[in-house]
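Final report, Chapter 2: Outcomes

The project's central promise was a pipeline that accepts a single protein chain and returns its three-dimensional structure in a standardized token representation, suitable for archiving and comparison. That pipeline is now operational. To close this chapter, we reproduce one record exactly as it appears in the project archive, with the input sequence first and the structure output second.
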Amino acid sequence: MIPPFEQLVDLAIVRPLMETFVVTSGLPMAIVDGEGKVLLTSGWQKLCVFYHRRYPLSVQRCIESDTDFPCFTCSGRPPVTGEHFESRCRNGLVHIGFPIVIEGEHLATLFLSQFFYEPPDIEHLLRQAREFGIEEAPYLEALKKVPVISHSRVEEVLGFYSGLAKLLEKLGTEHLRRLEYRRKLEESERKFRSIFESALDSVVLVAPDGRLLEANEQTSINLGYPREELLHLTKFDIHVPSERRQIDEYIKKVLADGSAMMETIQERKDGSLLPVEISGHRVDLMGEPAVLCLTKDISKRKEAEENLKSALREAEEGRKKIDAILKAVPDGLIVTGLSDRIILMNQSAKHLLQESLSTIEHIERLFAERAVREKTVATQENGEDQVPFEWELETVIGGEVRSLQARSMPVRAATGHIAATITLLRDLTREREIDRMKDDFISTAAHELRTPLTTVMGFLEILLQKEQVFSSEEQRGFLETVYLKSEDLAKIIDDLLDLSRIQSGHLITLKKSREDLVALIVRVVDPYREMTQKHTFTLDLPDSPVYLRLDPGKIGQVMENLLSNAIKFSPSGGRVIVSGNYVDGNFQVTVQDEGIGMSSEQTARVFEKFYRANSSTTAVSGLGIGMSITKSIVEAHGGKIWLQSEPGRGSRVHF
């Protein structure tokens, strides 16, 4: 709704203008609102002021004259500022009105009136006065003072009145627009303040120099400052010192680019820290640039991010642990899905099957053995663990035959249904070979024990025959043979006992003393010179004693084992060289023969328990445990032992 005219135009400013014109022109004027209320007058005649505007009937006629515009109502169009209408007022005077229309509404009329174009009809006006109840004499006196102005004179001033009406319309319109602008501004400010204060995030208005110009309630809540105290701070006061330079650069960037975002850390009044995300926008504040900062508390997000990072780290660590476990597991592991597609295959499985997961994707192609495929598939169908079963697989490279064992088990999800199948693969090749070696060992041990025992029993049987009479020399010879064979039996039993202790995890017991190793080697070698005529023994040892802390019995056992092997594996005879010298601060002993030698595979396995280079013949006796015991004795002394050999070119054992 448009306010009344007197609220739109300052009549105190208009009054001097009207009075000046009235004095100059001698024509009275007035401004009357749309309801007939007189707002402003200048030069009004006494006839109207004291008579026509004071008596009820005459006042009613004045109001009707001021509000009735027949020329406009007849044409059917609204009045326009600057146009005018001319008539006789209801009380007989000339009446010229100039409508003042603001925003389409006729709010007031500028009147030029209270004069005659020609001398008035006195009798008519007196009758009218009597009708109003006015005393005739003073009324007549006032009537005589009403000016008579020609048409030409009036036409000369119509332009001024029209311009004044337009000026008043312009003043009113501008004021109305100012009021409307103020209303909208106030409404906008109320909306802004409502949004500003009800925002869940902090909202701060910042000057280019960092001063806080405005802050909402949420800012006070977030930072712990009262609003009045906040407005005495700068943007730098509410951020940690390490972030203040970045804040300064951020404000400059927003002012230059129009907007920008950043993450930073604010400091509350109590000194605690608040991680935030700021979205800044350049705004115009009464002609000056400023930055509107929408600040979101991201402490929960940061906490969630840290929790997520921690969970990811734990998951990654878990994955690495699982990968490490899978890599460390010596057995093969294959995981297949419900469609029998391979989900996971560890390195051991790839090695055992000599396959690559990049080329094999389905269980059908992975296992050539039909029974293996059927067992794996049956696990998913039946949902039960499968009994382990074995099969032999010939490797692609080298044609080696491996003995493998497989066992399939279902993997159930939390709901209980089968999600996958795990198949474990074990390489039993070595175990089966050890079983075979043990069988060979038992057979060989029985043979090795039976041979000297048969000799002992045979000679004792001869000595016990009463009908046979032997000379004392013959009896002594028989008994010496029995004694020697008994010593052989004792050595075999000692070796078996040593092996038993080693297998049960007990270290070989040593009785160390300070001994001359050179003298010990000479004592062990001398009997072998007399034992064989086909072999010659050469010693290459230091001239001076070599004193070491060692167990002479055990080191003597090592030397006897090595010399015995040198003789046994040199059936055609030859030279046996025993040498010793210091190498890198350690004393190294070497026993070298010119015998049949060994292949690289035999050399690699010579220290294994029960291993015999050629178990198909009994030409070379032995249980296959001597070199294993020898290695344990040397290592118990803190030393090491190794062998070099070539087929047909003899062997060299170093310790």
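Archive annotation: The two ends are 118 Å apart (CA to CA).
This record, like all others produced under the grant, will remain available to the consortium after the project formally closes.
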